[in-house]
Amino acid sequence: MTGIILLTLLAAATGALLGYAASWFEADADSLVNRIDAILPQTQCAQCGYPGCRPYAEAIANSQAGIDQCPPGGADGVAALANLLGRDVIPLNPHYGEEKPVALAFIREPECIGCTLCIKACPVDAIVGAAKLMHTVIADHCTGCELCLPPCPVDCIDLIVPQNTISHYHGQIS
Predict the structure, then answer these.
(1) Residue 142 confidence (pLDDT)
(2) Residues 155 and 124 both lie in one domain
(3) Final residue of a structural domain among 48, 74, 96
(4) What's residue 39's pLDDT?
(5) Quick one: CA dihedral 51, 73, 138, 129, positive or negative?
(6) Residue 37 belongs to what domain range?
(7) 32 and 82 fall within a common domain
(8) What is the pLDDT along the chain (174 residues), one digit of tens a residue?
(9) How many structural domains compose the chain?
(10) Domain check: are 44 and 113 in the same one?
(11) What is the pLDDT of residue 134?
(12) DSSP labels for the chain?
């Protein structure tokens, strides 16, 4: 009888040890995902083939995606990921797009018909408006992902590259 009790205690102790070890490795994996995610630009543009930066970070951490799939992160992002992961720096994969300057969506409001398709397409809720009323972009929230461009039926959305001054910014859009 004492043998069964000892075996049960040994099994319980081994199970507890394995459970603790598993949670430690899981925490370490989450930490790596968090560090990768912190490098990514958070545009949520899906150009990498994943629905957002966090899923892409998880795929990189699990060796299911390359570090060269993020056009908004560009060459600097690839270099930072390579440095973090101890990999060689490689060029951005052109299959996923090309590196461009940071841009913001701008809706030419008089032309907007209020269809709400751009609002539905925006992954960061940077577009506000209501059905059959004009829409506008909250510049501080816009990541320039371009996902609002294709659904717009009247092509009233432009991407603009912000400049250093407000007056220059307004000069480009008037």
Answers:
(1) 95
(2) yes
(3) 96
(4) 97
(5) negative
(6) 2-96
(7) yes
(8) 565 554 444 444 455 444 554 444 444 658 999 999 999 999 999 999 999 999 999 999 999 999 999 999 999 999 999 999 999 999 999 999 999 998 999 999 999 999 999 999 999 999 999 999 889 999 999 999 999 999 999 999 999 998 765 544 444 554
(9) 2
(10) no
(11) 87
(12) -HHHHHHHHHHHHHHHHHHHHHHHHHHHHHHHHHHHHHHS------TTSSSSHHHHHHHHHTTSS-TT--TTTHHHHHHHHHHHHT-------GGG-------EEEE-GGG-----HHHHH-TT--EEE-TTS-EEE-TTT-----TTTTT-TT--EEEE---SSHHHHHHHH-
Question: Has this prediction a pTM greater than 0.85?
Answer: no
* pLDDT number for residue 9: 46
Q: Do residues 19 and 91 both lie within one domain? A: yes
Give dist(CA 55, CA 33) in Å, integer: 9
* Residue where a domain stops, chosen among 47, 76, 96: 96
CA distance 121 to 148: 5
Hey, what are 44's tokens? 């949520």
DSSP 56-99: HHHHHHTTSS-TT--TTTHHHHHHHHHHHHT-------GGG---
Question: Are 90 and 112 in the same domain?
Answer: no
Domain harbouring 113, CATH code? 3.30.70.20
